[in-house]
Automatic annotation (TrEMBL), chain A:
Domain Longin: 8-131
This protein's UniProt keywords: Coiled coil, Lipoprotein, Membrane, Methylation, Palmitate, Prenylation, Protein transport, Transport
Residue stretches making up the V-SNARE coiled-coil homology domain: 138-195
Biological classification of the source: Eukaryota, Metazoa, Chordata, Craniata, Vertebrata
GO cellular component: cytoplasmic vesicle membrane; cytosol; Golgi membrane
Official protein name in the record: Synaptobrevin homolog YKT6 isoform X1
Pfam families: Longin, Synaptobrevin
Any one of the GO BP annotations: endoplasmic reticulum to Golgi vesicle-mediated transport
SMART domains documented for this protein: Longin
Location of this chain's protein in the cell: Endomembrane system
Gene that encodes the chain: YKT6
From TrEMBL, chain B:
Gene that encodes the chain: SCFD1
Region span, Disordered: 296-316
Source organism superkingdom: Eukaryota
Native organism: Odocoileus virginianus (White-tailed deer)
One Pfam family this sequence matches: Sec1
GO cellular component, one term: Golgi cisterna membrane
One example of a Gene Ontology biological process annotation: protein transport
Family that this chain belongs to: Belongs to the STXBP/unc-18/SEC1 family.
Keyword vocabulary terms for this entry: Cytoplasm, Membrane, Protein transport, Transport
Compartmental location: Cytoplasm; Golgi apparatus, Golgi stack membrane
Name of the featured protein: Sec1 family domain-containing protein 1
Physiological role: Plays a role in SNARE-pin assembly and Golgi-to-ER retrograde transport via its interaction with COG4. Involved in vesicular transport between the endoplasmic reticulum and the Golgi.
Membrane topology classification: Peripheral membrane protein
């Protein structure tokens, strides 16, 4: 899975302006790199132009997936990735970047800005860190850990299960009805999700 | 002497001739070599490195070297005994290793005198190293001459050249197109290519007008070559393009056109199965720097223990300019070649019989009245028969050679059904309707090696207007894998096609001019050695490949969206900026087509066929490396690996 570009744009009334962009075109051959970069810039601008304010979308363009987030305040971000890259992480990245950008760059500079005039340097490092979604995104990491925990928990419950049965049937405290209820509940809840 | 020079220059730009002349001059102690000069040549030793060897061997035979006085020729990095009374001519690349060895030779006082020739220009610092070594060895007076020869390219035909052979991996298609290349590495690759091209134009004695496409490796070569030519022209003291080197006068009245083309505009042609003799030999046999290596199986050996398995003899043949059969038929469709060998054999047998008859008549001398009266008549006949014996022997040699080579080629055609592949691919490339399903051919266990099938599929994929659907593609991939193919080349071609679609207008294989090249007259009879049963008699249509089409546009100054925005460079113009507007509006008489990223004989033949009909026009074809489909697929496979 791969990220190719990350850009911040401003969706103006009449046109969309590119504010800052970072690219990773290292997987393309030497003479393709500048064309690919141009293509991505162009595509990013086009997509933002065609998206409404306050929207998120994922657009498939040939081999690439372009994820776009346009905020209500007209600040927009586009991530171009391959089709394997998880879209949830892409949107998390966009959210984060736009948040950071709006804190570092005055709103007043947005409508007339360009990559040369805008002073924001975080894009390159974000792009390179997010090449590996698991490392970069804590949520993904937790989710992955949870997945593992879930498995552990499940196994543990199952191994406990028999003992519980024994315990329940042997219990003299729980009434017969409770025991019956427990057995029925167990049957119905055979795939209980532990959350 | 001037007359000979004029004649040589007037003969149309044969790069082979020019490079040969330059080599002979070098071997003659850097004094122009004049044929038919009286007296023995001075005996000398020739020392070369592998680069030098590759340059000399297609141009000069061992006999020709001996005629120039070379009694001994040795590799630089070999153990060499001193021969103190003989001059030595060196012909090597100015690398550190080579310089060190040369200095060592000087210190060891190996030869009487030293003529040091560098294939491409030597740097000042390395020159000083040699000077110092000579000084230290008290051998300064023995270093007679030091020359930059500017011969860093290999000529294979009158009108075809390649850049190099030894270090071709450095400038291969893969080297130029792999993703993990740094800026400095790319600079080195480009500089290597430009150095050879510069040498080429110095040898040719002309400063070309340069055209190239934008955004490709070809453009980078164009920019650098323009700069290098420009700098050299402005350097009044050392300019290589004035006076002597131009030969008698300018290179015709007009300057030639150099078209720099990037391999990536056409990846189908290098994969194409072919039908003409030279291209076939290159495709299916081991053919390299004009030498073909055959493995022949000899018969079964009987020993007391029982029959031994067939032993394979290796035979090598040089396919040279003096091989009249080769020169006539190297571009001919294969069935025509087979037919012609048969005809040559019949004509040879008739002549051989004639000589035998005359010999036997002479044996009857004195016994037969009729024989005696025929004597004077026969003397004349016998004299002519005797004098034509060397010719006959040569004819026999060529017949044997081409019988063996053509037979080897035919075996491949029959075993792999190459005629089927050729025909089908031609249809794909010219967008004619296909009569058979592609899937059928791929799944057919009797037709072709896995590589043949991969070639066919790649050509289909490359030429398709619309990429096949996911489902169809999976089907093809499965069929290919079942047939034993490795899918890495496809992976690369997919990426290439996605990029090509994104970045530029599609190129088509067009069938702009389709004229049949004449039907082949006879079906092979069974008396012929070449039983072409089951092999189709295919007609070759004249159809311009992309490279030819681009050349045609630029040479004839035709307007075409494909070439209109090509860059234009004229190193002779004072202003450094290029413009896309050509200043010269007249069609060109001479052109050099150079493919950056590799080329092959199919393209070469297509250009030769194109220019044949045009009076007074000449084309030279060159490429950074020469590969056949097997070698090219290997590179694609490496590029497609994840």
């Amino acid at each position: 899975m791969k990220l190719y570009s990350l850009s911040v744009l401003y969706k103006g009334e009449s046109k969309t302006v590119l504010l800052k962009a970072a690219y990773d075109v290292s997987s393309f051959s030497f003479f393709q790199r500048s064309s690919v970069q141009e293509f991505m810039t162009f595509t990013s601008q086009l997509i933002v132009e065609r998206s409404g304010k306050g929207s998120r979308a994922s657009v498939k363009e040939q081999e690439y997936l372009c994820h776009v987030y346009v905020r209500n305040d007209s600040l927009a971000g586009v991530v171009i990735a391959d089709s394997e890259y998880p879209s949830r992480v892409a949107f998390t990245l966009l959210e984060k970047v736009l948040d950071e950008f709006s804190k570092q760059v005055d709103r007043i500079d947005w409508p007339t800005g360009s990559p040369d005039t805008i002073k924001y340097t975080g894009l390159d490092s974000h792009l390179s860190r997010y090449q590996n979604p698991r490392e970069a995104d804590p949520m993904t990491k937790v989710q992955a850990e949870l997945d593992e925990t879930k498995i552990i928990l499940h196994n543990t419950m199952e191994s406990i299960g028999e003992k519980l049965d024994d315990l329940v049937s042997k219990s003299e405290v729980l009434g017969i009805q409770s025991k019956a209820f427990y057995k029925t509940a167990r049957k119905q809840n055979s795939c209980c999700a532990i959350m | 002497m001037v007359g000979a020079k004029m004649a040589a220059a007037a003969a149309a730009a044969s790069i082979r001739e020019r490079q040969t002349v330059a080599l002979k001059r070098m071997l003659n102690f850097n004094v122009p070599h004049v044929k038919n000069s009286t007296g023995e040549p001075v005996w000398k030793v020739l020392i070369y490195d592998r680069f030098g060897q590759d340059i000399i061997s297609p141009l000069l035979s061992v006999k020709e070297l001996r005629d120039m006085g070379i009694t001994l020729h040795l590799l630089l990095h070999s153990d060499r005994d001193p021969i103190p009374d003989v001059p030595a001519v060196y012909f090597v690349m100015p690398t550190e290793e080579n310089i060190d060895r040369m200095c060592q030779d000087l210190r060891n006082q190996l030869y009487e005198s030293y003529y040091l020739n560098f294939i491409s220009a030597i740097s000042r610092s390395k020159l000083e190293d040699i000077a110092n070594a000579a000084l230290a060895a008290s051998a300064v007076t023995q270093v007679a001459k030091v020359f930059d020869q500017y011969l860093n390219f290999i000529t294979l035909e009158d009108d075809m050249f390649v850049l190099c052979n030894q270090n071709k991996e450095l400038v291969s298609y893969r080297a130029i197109n792999r993703p993990d290349i740094t800026d400095t590495e790319m600079e080195t690759v480009m500089d290597t290519i430009v150095d050879s091209l510069f040498c080429f134009f110095v040898t040719l004695g002309a400063v070309p007008i340069i055209r190239c496409s934008r955004g490709t490796a070809a453009e980078m070569v164009a920019v650098k070559l323009d700069k290098k030519l420009r700098e050299n022209l402005r350097d009044a003291r050392n300019s290589l393009f004035t006076g002597d080197t131009l030969g008698a006068g300018q290179f015709s009245f007009q300057r030639p056109l150099l078209v720099l083309i990037d391999r990536n505009i056409d990846l189908a042609t290098p994969l194409h199965h072919t039908w003409t003799y030279q291209a076939l030999v290159h495709d299916v046999l081991d053919f390299h720097l004009n030498r073909v290596n055959l493995e022949e199986s000899s018969g079964m050996e009987n020993s007391p223990a029982g029959a031994r398995p067939k032993r394979k003899n290796k035979k090598s043949y040089d396919l040279t300019p003096v091989d009249k059969f080769w020169q006539k038929h190297k571009g001919s469709p294969f069935p025509e070649v087979a037919e012609s060998v048969q005809q040559e054999l019949e004509s040879y047998r008739a002549q051989e019989d004639e000589v035998k008859r005359l010999k036997s008549i002479m044996g009857l001398e004195g016994e037969d009245e009729g024989a005696i009266s025929m004597l004077s008549d026969n003397t004349a006949k016998l004299t002519s028969a005797v004098s034509s014996l060397p010719e006959l022997l040569e004819k026999k040699r060529l017949i044997d050679l081409h019988t063996n080579v053509a037979t080897a080629v035919l075996e491949h055609i029959k075993a792999r059904k190459l005629d089927v592949y050729f025909e089908y691919e031609e249809k794909i490339m010219s967008k004619t309707t296909l009569d058979k399903s592609l899937l059928d051919i791929i799944s057919d266990p009797d037709a072709g090696t896995p590589e043949d099938k991969m070639r066919l599929f790649l050509i289909y994929y490359i030429s398709a207007q619309q990429a096949p659907s996911e489902a169809d593609l999976e089907q093809y991939k499965k069929a290919l894998t079942d047939a034993g193919c490795n899918l890495n080349p496809l992976q690369y071609i997919k990426q290439w096609k996605a990029f090509a679609k994104m970045a530029s207008a599609p190129t088509s294989y067009g069938n702009t001019t389709t004229k049949p090249m004449g039907l082949l007259s006879r079906v092979m009879n069974t008396g012929s050695q070449f039983v072409m049963e089951g092999v189709k008699n295919l007609v070759l249509k004249q159809q311009n490949l992309p490279v030819t089409r681009i050349l045609d546009n630029l040479m004839e100054m035709k307007s075409n969206p494909e070439t209109d925005d090509y860059r234009y460079f004229d190193p002779k113009m004072l202003r450094g900026n290029d413009s896309s507007v050509p200043r010269n509006k007249n069609p060109f008489q001479e052109a050099i087509v150079f493919v950056v990223g590799g080329g092959n004989y199919i393209e070469y033949q297509n250009l030769v066929d194109y220019i044949k009909g045009k009076q007074g026009k000449h084309i030279l074809y060159g490429c950074s490396e020469l590969f056949n489909a097997t070698q090219f697929i290997k590179q694609l496979s490496q590029l497609g690996q994840k």
